[in-house]
Amino acid sequence: MSTINELVLASNNAGKLKELSDMLAGCGIRVQPQSAFDIPDADETGLSFVENAILKARHAAQLSGLPALADDSGLAVDALGGAPGIYSARYAGNHGDDSANNAKLLEALKDLPDAERGARFLCVLALVRHPEDPVPILCQGEWRGRILHSAQGDNGFGYDPLFWVPERNCASAELSKTDKNALSHRGKALKQLLQQLQ
């Protein structure tokens, strides 16, 4: 596994690309976004983060000829039975419309007290060496917190302005990039991946 010195990141999500590229920067692996190969987003037809991460990784490996790393992640809100879950990026309909997704989430939870607003960010990373790789490396991270009543902070992306981080007493969108990468679901999953790659 340690022979990977270049890989394609199977995402066109600018926020994810920035976070993953920053976190992989020190590990000696050249990271290319799938846009460098004109790779469109894969159809996310899986019913779980694991299935979708593998689908995306295989798709990018097939079209780039490189090992591929895919991230499937989202927000699971306890009071909503785990929704928006795998539909987090398109919760309000349009893929990646953060403000509409956040507005819909606030509306869904509007009458709930803090004690019932528990939530967690989940991330699955899938790394395939080639499109038919029979044993993708899978790493999972979880980040627990709760949903705020209104947005706070200007950093991050997605649901970060609504996600309260108890360890830091602030919203995810108020954390520095370094703090977020150390605490987040994606940071935890990537740490596992880097340990496996070494």
UniProtKB/TrEMBL annotation:
Catalytic activity: XTP + H2O = XMP + diphosphate + H(+); dITP + H2O = dIMP + diphosphate + H(+); ITP + H2O = IMP + diphosphate + H(+)
E.C. no: 3.6.1.66
Keywords: Hydrolase, Magnesium, Metal-binding, Nucleotide metabolism, Nucleotide-binding
GO MF annotations, alphabetized: dITP diphosphatase activity; ITP diphosphatase activity; metal ion binding; nucleotide binding; ribonucleoside triphosphate phosphatase activity; XTP diphosphatase activity
GO BP terms: nucleotide metabolic process; purine nucleoside triphosphate catabolic process
Cofactor names: Mg(2+)
Cellular component GO terms, alphabetical: cytosol
Cofactor note as given: Binds 1 Mg(2+) ion per subunit.
Residues given in the record as substrate binding sites: 11-16, 73, 157-160, 180, 185-186
Assembly with partners or alone: Homodimer.
Protein name, UniProt field: dITP/XTP pyrophosphatase
Protein's organism: Simiduia aestuariiviva
